[in-house]
Amino acid sequence: MPGSEKEITIYDIAEKLKVSAATVSRALKDHPRVNKNTKKKIVKAAAEMGYRSNSFASNLRRKNSNIIGVIVPRLNSSFMSDVIAGIEKVVNNNNYNLIISQSLETMKKEISNAKAMLNNRVDGLLVSLAYDTTGIEHFEPFIKRKIPVLFFDRIIEHAHYPQIYIDNFKAAYEVTDHLLQQGCKRIVHINGNQLRNVYAERLRGYKQALEAHHIDFDEQLVIINDLSAKESAAAAEAILQMNPLPDGIFTVNDVSAVSCIQVLKKAGIKIPEQIAIAGFNNDPAACVIEPNLTTVNYKGYEMGEVAASMLINHLTNRQDLQQTHSLILRSELIVRESSSRKK
Amino acid sequence: MPGSEKEITIYDIAEKLKVSAATVSRALKDHPRVNKNTKKKIVKAAAEMGYRSNSFASNLRRKNSNIIGVIVPRLNSSFMSDVIAGIEKVVNNNNYNLIISQSLETMKKEISNAKAMLNNRVDGLLVSLAYDTTGIEHFEPFIKRKIPVLFFDRIIEHAHYPQIYIDNFKAAYEVTDHLLQQGCKRIVHINGNQLRNVYAERLRGYKQALEAHHIDFDEQLVIINDLSAKESAAAAEAILQMNPLPDGIFTVNDVSAVSCIQVLKKAGIKIPEQIAIAGFNNDPAACVIEPNLTTVNYKGYEMGEVAASMLINHLTNRQDLQQTHSLILRSELIVRESSSRKK
DNA sequence: TTGTAGGCGTTATCAA
DNA sequence: TTGATAACGCCTACAA
């Protein structure tokens, strides 16, 4: 039974075929300067003997791993699993492999993940930052070694790291502007940790839109939480206690928006008539909740594809890291019933 | 600047400290027989010099990779991203790393993924089978090399491969039984590819429950599709054309169930009064759709944790593969409004 | 077109 | 407790 006892090496193949190991090595990697016939024989023998190349040896020799590392806050969100799926597709199509880890939203784990990635000798790294990450020194060892690190979605401005994200400011501006145009005057804004660009930018967009409509920003209307269903339900309860009630809610993710809608509906609030609501992300649930949720569409799958492509281009073209610009992807406001007041 | 020029090796550290590379190696892995002081010095120097161990060399020498491979049909489903999150947690806590790839539901890609995993020398493999996989010969090379392969969720019965799954037969039986108890007499059953245990078993459960209630199985009431929202909407349209209308629908995932509910509601059907509906998986949308969806809860996160733990136990205890039994995880029927008829 | 030979960085064995 | 040495399997100048 081939391969059942010990691993076959190129030397075993060489011996059997009375050629040198070098020739076997060349043949197996389609090196141009090797006789067609010899190559055919070698490939055939390799298959018969159950040979598999030893990537450790090869990597050791060549000093690269063909592995792309990914660090994300959580794997199990609708958005992030789309991103990962997109990354995987591109990475796989380019004969790279993927090592994935999650920071579980803590900087501590993010640091330890980064260390692991470094020791695993990833050729490049894709990162979306944890909720509470305050610095990115833990990625410096990569830069020193010229291993490209690319941030996506939850990014940090820094010359060494190319970034891929959407224009969160603009998207949030559009959402808020839309709500205002629907007649909202007092819009509660539920938002996340202001350390992260995605959240800070959205708050900025909210403020800016208010200003454009000559409405004073009211700190009391901003609720910062972790955007989970649980904390958002609590936020909705708090909103119910407000007097007067707000007439709009803009919350920066859909999990949170759905949770709010559920609480408010149960309390007898009419949506969008009494309170218009908009979210962010266009999760599948946005089209399931009633009324359907107005939100920002922002395709994770595409972001994953683009991020992976950019990184791999780097790697194969040996471009200098600095040369790559940041990339801003398109997002779009999708207006649905949760914010559509009849004229 | 440490580490900025060339990679530091144990020889560099050895030279600087006037000890041998062997001692450095031992010190860095906490080998017991090395002087406390020497160790301290070595560890300190390593940090200062920006040393990182070369996993290629180490793996080559030790003949294992500390990498666990995962092959799943798709990464971006609610269930699967939970599974992956669970796997990642356990794998990471045990100082293994994770290589992930998706078969995109085709056997062809599954085979090529398996090859890549083999060449990457994973220490173990976790697999959930693609929609149309008919054989599992592509995993035999792992078995020959005593690399454990463990199937989860979408499994195949085979002595060489331990399996983790839920009792799909029982779960489906309970769902059907519940619908029957609610007074349903004609239950449409929407199901997936019967090649896969998860789907075949659920059909079996459906049939068995009918039989227990002395209701004849009617082939006409079974719709086989890919369980996507799109095909399920089409199925719902077909159901609307049935004469007489069925009074129940049991579909084997929640995406499908939600899609059906949306179509039926739009057509003016009262749920659950006219048609009671149940799904499978307990996706987040199950609690968002109105009426809330009766479904089978079946925690992916836990399945991921258990699968990874089992595999890693194998690896660390060097147990024989055959000794591990299959594991059946708990699942539970969750009755919600979509199937609750007032008595 | 093919072969020779050295080295990638680590660890295990043996000896000191 | 430490050191010398020989693999691990592959790749790539360089030579033939």
Count all strands of chain A and give the number.
Answer: 12
Question: Most extensive interface: pair and counts?
Answer: A-B, 52 and 52 residues
Strand residue content of chain A = 5-15%
- Strand arrangement, major sheet of chain A: 2-1-3-4-5-11
Specify the helix fraction band of chain A: 40-55%
Describe this structure in words.
Two copies of one chain form a homodimer. In chain A, helix 1 (10-17) crosses helix 2 (21-28), helix 1 packs across helix 3 and helix 10 packs across helix 11. With 343 residues, chain A is an alpha/beta fold. Chain A contains twelve helices and twelve strands. The radius of gyration of chain A is 26 Å and the shape is elongated. The interface between A and B is large, with 52 and 52 residues. Chain B binds a DNA duplex (16 and 16 nucleotides) through residues 7, 9-11, 19-23, 25-26, 29, 33-35, 38, 53-63.
